[in-house]
Structures are given as structure tokens and as C-alpha cells.
Amino acid sequence: MKRTFITFLLASAAAGCSYGMTAAKFRPATDPHGVMGTVTAAGVAFYGELIALQESGLIIMTSRAGGGEERVLRLLPYSSISSSRFEQLASRFSIREGSAPPGEVREHLQLVSRFPQGISAPVLAELLKANRQTGLAGVQR
Fold it and tell me: What is the pTM of this model?
């Protein structure tokens, strides 16, 4: 009886503990935004939300130079990206040295972006309009 009770206590304690990331702690799992990160492209560091991945690069939403609430949608070509780091993701899920991400990295980044299914032209047009942009900004500030 005593052994059963001790086993029950140990099992209950183990079930009540969590180690590492949980869905409740993982921002992309708890709100509609994409993962936040810093992407260095053409020597400029951009901090923002990962909106979507395209064949040619990442679409991110950054703050305008000088801060403030105004946001800018940017297409950062893979060829211009020297490094990236996304919050709450392991370093293996980063883009480096001007190369498009390999399959597993691309799939994972897509899943944690705001538009994991990709972004259609009409939706992109609406986002640009909402941000008072006529097109995606590039790597220039």
C-alpha cells in the first residue's frame, strides 16, 4: 500500500511539471501574429514580425526608422540576408549567408509566420493599403 501511494505521488508530481516550451508560452500559438525576429540584410538590422515566406525572400513588418507606431512591410531577399534570429526558435531555424532556407527550416518558418499558407495577392494588397504603402519596401531604410 505504501509503495502504491509513493508511486502515485511521484506520478502526480511528474505530470504537474513541464519542461521547455509549451503552447501556452509560444507566442505564435496563442495569437494571430507571426514570430518576431531580427533579420540583418544588406548590413541593416530589421526587427519585426514574420509575415510570410516567398520564393525570393521573407516578408516582414518592421517599424519605421525613428520608431513610432507606423509599420512598414518589407521584402528582404534571401540573397541580401546575412543573419537572422527569431524569438522562441532554436538557432537552427535561421537564415544565413544569403541562402534560401533549406526544406525543414523553410517549413518551420512558414508555420510560425502570420500567413503559414502563404499570402495571396489580394491579401497583400489590403495589408499594403492598410499601411499606406503602394508596394513592399526593400532593404533600404
Answer: 0.75
